[in-house]
Automatic annotation (TrEMBL):
Belongs to the shikimate kinase family. InterPro entries: P-loop_NTPase, Shikimate/glucono_kinase, Shikimate_kinase/TSH1. One of its GO terms (biological process) is amino acid biosynthetic process. The lineage of its organism: Bacteria, Pseudomonadati, Bacteroidota, Cytophagia, Cytophagales. Mg(2+) binds at T14. This is Shikimate kinase. Binds 1 Mg(2+) ion per subunit. It comes from Pontibacter arcticus. Monomer. It is found in: Cytoplasm. Pfam families: SKI. Its main location: cytoplasm. CDD domains: SK (cd00464).
């Protein structure tokens, strides 16, 4: 069984994915970390040196590799992963997808307190530009995220709520 967590940056995919994997005794894969290890570069370096288009190709290839290498895993995808190529269909063909739906205001607050240098799409933007970017990006991505099999409404999530959703208890 493969379980994919999807949603915007700042939704909590990595933290919750790790907790869920631990609880289930599954492997945990953070797709951004996987890409960084595979390429030997940070996500920020890939964006800077090769551009977003190249990153999206590496991301798709990484998604396929993770699916090939794992049978029981919780996979926290990157914020944009489901919205490029046919990645969302691919994800839904491989396992159970869960959209972590967090209100934009909360995402904005969380990301403002994070290290923006690690988030190339937000780095070098003013607060106003970040707000506009996140507003537009969430609006554009939502129809894609909503193709997930399950949606969990935040801002905060518990492993128990996830397990219940997945019918594991
Ligand atoms: O995959 C990384 C990368 O910074 C792009 C991204 C996005 O498009 O929302 C989110 C991150 O997880």
């Amino acid at each position: 069984m493969l379980i994919f967590l999807i949603g915007m940056m700042g939704a909590g995919k990595t933290t919750l994915g790790w907790q869920l994997a631990n609880k289930l005794g599954y492997s945990f894969v953070d797709l951004d970390d996987f890409i960084e290890k595979r390429e030997g570069k940070s996500i920020a370096q890939i964006f800077e040196q090769e551009g977003q288009e190249c990153f999206r190709e590496l991301e798709r290839a990484a998604l396929e590799a993770v699916v090939t290498e794992n049978t029981k895993a919780v996979i926290s995808t990157g914020g944009g992963t489901p919205c490029f190529f046919n990645n969302m269909d691919f994800i839904n063909g491989q396992g159970k997808s869960i959209f972590l739906n967090v209100p934009l205001s909360e995402i904005f607050t969380r990301l403002s307190g994070s290290n923006l240098a690690l988030r190339p799409l937000l780095a070098n933007k003013t607060e106003e530009e970040r707000r506009l970017f996140l507003t537009n990006t969430l609006a554009a991505r939502k129809p894609c995220y909503e193709q997930a099999v399950y949606t969990l409404n935040g801002p905060d999530f518990t492993v128990q709520a996830l397990l219940k959703l997945l019918n594991y208890n």
